[in-house]
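This part of the workshop introduces the protein records we will be handling. The structure tokens are whole numbers drawn from a learned vocabulary of backbone shapes. The record below serves as our worked example for the rest of this section.

===
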Amino acid sequence: MNRNQISLPEPALSPPDANDSLTGIIGPLQELPREELDPRPGLSNFLSRQPKKALKRKAATPTSDNDELLTIAREKLRKPRTLPAEDQFDNFGKMMAQKLRDLPRDQRIIAEKLFSEVMFEAELGNLIRQSTLTLAWAYPTALHSHV
């Protein structure tokens, strides 16, 4: 006996019937090669004879919408992000930021507030060439009380 062959007891089969259409097509079950039979108990040799096929993976191709979206996202992430060239407003903002950094904290807070108020009026369209900023100096009476 060959090492690859499995010894199985001979199944009890009735003789092939001449009217049996399956026997005429596939021949008697006794003629099946033994190395293809599955020796698991409880299963018929005919059912276990089915050859085991290796599962094949489909080629990875972007056929579905999800795959296409992932491909587009991957390409976008690989491209370096280009920033727009700096313009006069970027330069002005950097200059103002540096001036604010150089101020004492209390002066910086007031300057930021005044700048915000001027920008607010500009956004509303209330500024003209003759617009001025009037600062009112109001001192708390507790600080300047005359005793």
Observations:
- The mean pLDDT is 73.
- Residues 18 and 73 are 66 Å apart (CA to CA).
